Task: inverse folding
């Protein structure tokens, strides 16, 4: 993974970025009860990119596979 350490010299120490999370596989198994929502077998893509100065340089783009998410 490439890192641009020049961002440490910026006010606030970071770039302006944008990011998305996206489910990239078929719909996961969903369990819904009165107390929680659970999804298993998720493949989620995380993509972030630098948005300043009109440059859309990708910073990170990876998939987290076979995740389980539970929301109470």
Result:
């Amino acid at each position: 993974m490439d890192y641009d350490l020049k961002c440490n010299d910026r006010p606030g120490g970071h770039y302006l970025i944008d990011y998305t999370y996206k489910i990239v596989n078929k719909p996961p198994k969903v369990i819904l009860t009165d107390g929680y929502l659970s999804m298993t077998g998720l493949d989620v893509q995380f993509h972030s990119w630098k948005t300043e100065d009109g440059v859309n340089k990708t910073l990170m783009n990876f998939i987290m596979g076979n995740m389980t998410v539970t929301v109470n």
Summary: The chain has no helices and four strands. The beta strands are 17-23, 29-32, 37-50, 57-71.
